[in-house]
Amino acid sequence: MTSQRRLAAVFAASTALVLAACSGGGGGAGGPDGGAVETDENGFASYTGDPQEGGVVTVLGGVDFSHLDPAMGNDGNVNNLYQLIYRNLTTYRYEPGSEQPELVPDLATDLGTSNDDATVWTFTLKEGVTFQDGSPITAEDVKFGIERAFDPSLAIGSDYLQTYIEGALDYPGVFEAPEGLDSIRVVDERTIEFHLNQPLAAFPYVLATPPGVPFPADQVTSPQQIQEEPIASGPYRVESYERGEALTLVRNEEWDRETDEVRPARPDGFEFLLGLDQNTIDQRMLSGQGEDANALASSTNPLLAATLSRVQQDPRLMERTIQDLPTCTMYMAMNTTVEPLNDPQVRQAINYAVDKTSVVNATGGPLLATTAHDMLLPSVPGREEFNLYETPDDAGDPQRARQMLADAGHPNGFDLTMDVRAIPKWQAQAEAVQQSLAQVGINVRLNVIDAATYYEAIATTSQQNDLAITGWCSGGWYSGAPLLGPLFDGDRITETGNTNIAQLDDEHINARFDEIAQITDLDQQNAEYAELNREIMELAPVVPLVRETPLQMVGENIGGAFAHPARTGYIDYGSVGLLDPEG
């Protein structure tokens, strides 16, 4: 069976999105018909008009990028940036107001072809695709780029390719084993073949993840080279980077628009200003003076809740404020390897103890977040609604939690340390949980970690503490495979780059992941993931907290802004530009 037929089935089953507060017309990379601002049912912008060619877009950010190397970064903001600099075999296209993002070829000519059981996939590269120096991107470069990402010093980002490609988990990386993997085969200059360790009809989705970026095999000589000197295949290249201060992107003159159906790349460049205070960003965006008319707030710096009332009082501000899509679940992971969190009854008690309504309020209120009770997004096909730890108004049940802790041998509570990212909203969420747990005798110390290095810290098993506030998002692939597997499959726990922050290593759960992966009927597979979602929550390794719909502001001269579900629900950097480049 060809991949087109398989992907049609996968896509129909796995991307029926609920796009709350997004009612703009079609257009995607080209924008809706006409150039006017379109608004949603709440009065926020769903599309800010058609941008023109030229000019420089400024992005105001409080958080530095975690890594410029796509093998290493794994958060929504940096993944958004990668789309400007790099290209993959496949990627996502989305038109504002449509029901779902569409997986489309990027460097590849199509979405690949597979053998009958989807364990072998073949892709052909487009002609005319090049790196920033004009050298052609070949199948050897794709193989090298992926195998480079498996180097232990780099493999701290997305782990899907490493999980599914035969032999990748045991491969030491291309610098130690330059002969490479037999499971990634260069057929000819433009054709590459992947051999998987299990059937996977959705493998083209996996190739859209950042570690799938190709790099020139004859130019990269050390693991850290790309982090220090990125090599662009996308429409922009890095001109300068002062960590914590500014990142400047300029046009990659070797990028050929004719080969790229996804990235409109209208601006001449981007200027990312980093390390700014959140209040400063809000005030600059509200006033929109001078060059700030050409600016937008970064993905990690949505409006503070205190700013919302001012925006709602002015229709002109509403028309340049985008409400992001709920494609992430914020949750608190509990380290199941340490006492007393190794006891499921203790973890269940903590689930009852947490006042999720207070977390919603800490996030900015019901307009900006809703409570979460499980780890599958509502738009996942086959998902079943349930709430195993139901409390009145989601406000927690301290009395029940205290009794459960006493029954587990902890009548006087205990002390824990919680890792939290140094972002005001995240800290507010952590403080809300801290107050809830204090009511049942659990004293929580907050360990605030630099925002840029937070994920790397909590993904290092020797560094993480008892609890951690974090989030997990869909990048366009809506299934239990990406939403549950990385978080709860004990066979995927690693010393660094670990996404199973709870370190859940349950024999039954691990076996269930293996069993479900072998199912080729997608409806049946989705039903099994829905049941596994419940089984995981019965073990209570995490406390699901909220699903956010934050607000991002843009300057009055910014067009092409809309919430993109495959960009973690944020404004897509690759689609924005200036309404008037001369203005």
TrEMBL record:
Domain Solute-binding protein family: 102-490
Signal peptide: 1-20
Keyword Signal: yes
Record's keyword terms, sorted: Signal
Region ranges (Disordered): 28-50
Keyword Aminoacyl-tRNA synthetase recorded: no
Pfam families (alphabetical): SBP_bac_5
PROSITE patterns cross-referenced by the UniProt entry: PROKAR_LIPOPROTEIN
PANTHER family per the UniProt record, alphabetical: ABC TRANSPORTER SUBSTRATE-BINDING PROTEIN, PERIPLASMIC BINDING COMPONENT OF ABC TRANSPORTER
Official protein name in the record: ABC transporter substrate-binding protein
